[in-house]
Every structure is written in structure tokens, then in C-alpha cells.
Amino acid sequence: MEKILHPANSRGTANYGWLKANYSFSFANFFDPKKVQFGLLRVLNDDYVQAGMGFGTHPHQNMEIISIPLKGEIRHKDSMDHTKVITAGEVQVMSAGTGVEHSEFNSSKEELNMLQIWIFPEQNGLEPRYDQKDFSELLENNKLINIVSPKSDRSENALYINQQAYLHLGDFEAGRKIDYKLKNEAHGVYIFLIEGEAEVDGNLLKRRDAAGIWDTSTVSLEFKTNSKVLLIEVPMN
């Protein structure tokens, strides 16, 4: 088993007034040669956006983008003629493919906290696509829910992206233990503890800490307090 630990306080940070950002990997003005990506996971940003503010229209290309609002809502508009609102409990996926432009704004009166994840696609030059889904009724205590999976291995409820990647969310009570079995031995899993405390193969993770683990078939987690966790399984090359 190989492992890398990313404490929350080792993330890059930026404060633009309207946006407070935390970067798990090199992004914008933050660069760390040891934290460029984890396998094919390129970006995990933990953003706080003030009410009425947001990201103006900007382009993306050849990237699978997943947005998970943890608090508040995102108003999304793109060049594919989608105008949508994504709220906490929902997940949004966008395959940028050959190219797409979009904007994201916090249209509510409260601060927005969202996770934005970028994963390299399995193939470049694909047609752009958009989807979103409300998972709030599917999330059960002490159970991992598959929110994103590959199109070729799509679970019943998951959104799909153009990569052999699997994202799971779960809320767990203190004292619960789980074993996560990776789909492929050539994959790794990036464990991002959204809230709480958890022991991950002998290492204690606290709020917003992360651990990347590979060269293993199973990862064990034991939750020390009530916790919320995101697991991102990706090919390592």
C-alpha cells in the first residue's frame, strides 16, 4: 500500500473578498510540485462564495467537472443552453469535451460552500454534456452512496462521466467502520473528510484533511465522530 497525506492546513488558499478558496492541488496562484494531481484527479477546490457573487463566463475543454454544493446554491448557465440551479444535496456533472463556456453564481442570500472536482477524461474531443441529480433522498446514514461512475459501469443512481472514476458520499455515525473495495487494482482512492474525524489505515483525519491511497485493493475507515466523507477513486495513470 502507498499513501500520501494532505492535511487541511497544507492546502493552497486564496482570498478575493467575494471568494475564499482552498486548493487541494496546484491551482491559480498556488503551485506545489508535489501536489499537481492524484492520478487522474486534477482539481479539488473547496470554495466559499459570497451572496450575489460568482464566477463569470469562462471556458473549459477536455475535462470532467463535478460540482457538489455543501451549503447554499449555484446558478449555472452554459453555452449548451442550460440555465440551472444546483442546491445542497444535488450533484452536477459537466463534460467539457471539445469546449464549453459557463458561469456559476451564488444567487441566494447566504454564503455558498461548494466542492469543485476536475478529472481528466478517458478520451479528448468528446461532445460536451451536462447533467445534475438530487441525491438528498438517497443519502442514508452509515452508507456510502455512489454519486458518479463511468458510463461503461454506471450504477443505478449515479451520474456518469467519461472516465473510469467512481465518487462516493457518505454520512457516518461515531464508531462506525467500513471497508472500501477499489474497483480496479490500478486505481487509487482520494479520501476527503468533509466533516468529523476518521482513522484511515492508522492515520487520523480531521475536518478537510485528505489521504490518497493506492497499490491496495481495500481501504479501511473508522469514524471517531459523526462524519461526512467523499471518496474519489481514479486511475493512477
TrEMBL record:
* Family annotation (InterPro entries): Pirin, Pirin_N_dom, Quercetinase_C, RmlC-like_jellyroll, RmlC_Cupin_sf
Q: Which residues bind Fe cation?
A: 58, 60, 102, 104
Q: Among its keywords, does the record have Iron-sulfur?
A: no
User: Which superkingdom is the protein from?
Assistant: Bacteria
- State the needed cofactors, names only: Fe cation
Q: Which residues form the Pirin N-terminal domain?
A: 12-119
What stretches pass through the bilayer?
none
Keywords attached to this Swiss-Prot or TrEMBL record, sorted alphabetically, are: Iron, Metal-binding
Query: Cofactor comment in the record?
Result: Binds 1 Fe cation per subunit.
Citing just one GO molecular function, the answer is: metal ion binding
For this chain, the family text in UniProt reads: Belongs to the pirin family.
In Swiss-Prot or TrEMBL terms, this protein is called Pirin family protein
Q: Which organism is it from?
A: Christiangramia aestuarii
Taxonomy of origin reads: Bacteria, Pseudomonadati, Bacteroidota, Flavobacteriia, Flavobacteriales
